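Q: Structure tokens for this one, please.
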Amino acid sequence: MQKKKTNKLWEYAKAIGLALILALFIRAYFVQAFKIPSGSMIPTLLIGDHLLVNKFIYGTKIPFSDNKIMIIKKPERGDIIVFRFPHEPDRDFIKRIIAVEGDTIEGRNKEIFLNGKKLNEPYVQHTDIYLIRGDREPRDNFGPLTVPKGMYFVMGDNRDQSFDSRYWGFVSHKDIRGKAFILYWSWDDGEKLPRFARIGNLIH
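A: Here is the predicted structure, written as tokens:
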């Protein structure tokens, strides 16, 4: 009887161990959950949104290396990505790619110009009517800047309230964790209620 109990406990332990290993493997190489902590991506993403990040679409990272293999596609303009903040690698940021390597980007009075052409950005929100000169800070006026090889210029959709590439520079391909693709939960902390209408929405 004791032997049967021991065998059953051992089977449970093996099953739990396997499940943990599988969960860690999936999190490391395939899909990771991420919670929106700030309002820099409003109105596209709200504080309290919970989303899944596709980690393998831009390539699988080789352990103990910055190199990636099995790259399905390169990050593109318009992709919303989760990445390691260049100045604090233990922190994750989420922003939208606005320019890729070789692009020239410029901000003129809150409007973004890419390779000399004004961008149509229906996803952008502005909350401040005042314009700040570029010699004071780069929020409303900056550049022109050319994006180096292997780098990306990212910005928040809540354009007047986002700490992004305008302030701290480019994101390296090796620091990108993945592409945000779906909302699986959303919680309004102010109302103390779930936002059911947002659950299941694709992110774009």
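A few notes: Residues 22-26 have pLDDT under 50 and may be disordered. The helical segments are 2-29, 165-168.
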